[in-house]
Amino acid sequence: MPSSPIDVLARHLEHVTHTDATVDLPALAEILDAIPDPRCRRGRRYRLGPLLALALLAILSGATSLAQITRFIAGYEPNLRARLGLPPAMRPAASTLGRLLARLDGDAFDAATCGYVAALAACPPPETTKVTRMPLLGLAVDGKTLRGSRTANSTTVHLLAATRHDTQTVLAQRQIEAKSNEIPAFTPLLRGLDLTGMVITADALHTQHDHAHHINAAGGHYLFIVKGNQPTLHRRLKALPWRKAILNDRTDEQGHGRREIRRMKICTARPGLPFPHAVQAIQVKRRRTDHRTGKTTIVTIYAITSLPPGRITHAQLAALIRGHWSIEALHHIRDITYREDASRIRTGTTPRIMASLRNLAIGLTRLIGWTNIAAATDHYRNHPADGLQLLGLTT
């Protein structure tokens, strides 16, 4: 098997040329096989890792339900399943797969899959992709409620994730405890990550003193939005002399039926700004015109950052602010392409495991070079042999 699946799978894109860059990584099935198996040893008819890997390949091909995943697995030739250590005559039922996923350890599953994709994301990209690396890596933290997981007692599964701006790969994910919120889960989410050279971006909910202290102590930087949940800080930011500040960056973009102009100004934070490690304040005015209705809206947002002046360019700082919404784009893909919100899976950890498999499928396709996930699912549905290369079964 090639040492990195990215080098092999890059051949699936006609505009990407295969390179010889390699990294020593185990096969995906081996990673998944190390996850604790909840089944009794006496009743196990097949290995956990290969089954989960085939489930991932089904999702990579556009499967959106347990029934579609099991039909996909049953469609493989018996000799292929035998090579994976699965019974040749295996025809798993959707209910059986659901019971298995419901009993998996969600934390262990996320640790294994996020660690795997993080290692892949650290691989040098093919030269032909012409990826321009920023001096600092943006890491967006945001949560998502799996709406279809609502149970009889009105509880839903809510996941908090940390996602790279550039590759849309999820590096860490945690499930929020019932009757809690995202704030207590923020520090545990980032605790296992090396934050050196990273800028953590988050919305106003996570503009918390403890979060800033943790990021600074871990060697990272933060870029937080400030709103009314921090009234004193928000008031101080609004009172800064923005009219006298020079325009540091301006972008003018058109797309999706609208025109959006963003203007960014920066103030070096005055002594006594009531937030730890904050050294710069940022104002962004966003003017958006809807071409269909002709309506124009102007929104002003404020942000603070621990990045010192001159650490990155103004354009890069503006890109970090916009890049935070890459995690919203990830959530949109899961809802539209993989129909996550329409899913009615709600038993045990199954909703979380399915969300993690979708994250992994999207991350892999992004790392390969796909810009359109719907097109990627069409490709792997029509070319299943390409997906099998993830398992090292073909070259």
Describe this structure in words.
By secondary structure, the chain is α+β, with helices and mostly antiparallel strands. The protein contains 15 helices and 9 strands. Strands 3-2-1-4-5-9-8-7-6 form a 9-stranded mixed sheet, sandwiched between helices. β4 (198-202), α9 and β5 (221-226) form a beta-alpha-beta unit. The N and C termini lie close together (7 Å). Residues 15-24 and 125-134 have low confidence and may be disordered.
| Percent helix | 25-40%
Mean pLDDT figure: 87
The side-by-side strand order for the widest beta sheet comes to 3-2-1-4-5-9-8-7-6
The major sheet is characterized as: 9 strands, mixed
Low-pLDDT sequence parts = 15-24, 125-134
Number of helices: 15
Give the N-to-C terminal Cα separation: 7 Å
What is the structural class? Answer: alpha+beta
Mass-distribution shape = elongated
Q: What's the helix-strand series?
A: HHHHHHHEEEHEHEHEEEEHHHHH
Quick recap of the structure?
With 395 residues, the chain is an alpha+beta fold. The protein has helices at 5-9, 28-33, 48-60, 66-74, 78-83, 94-102, 106-121, 183-191, 209-217, 231-239, 314-323, 326-336, 350-368, 373-382, 384-388; strands at 137-146, 157-164, 170-175, 198-202, 221-226, 249-255, 258-268, 280-290, 296-305.
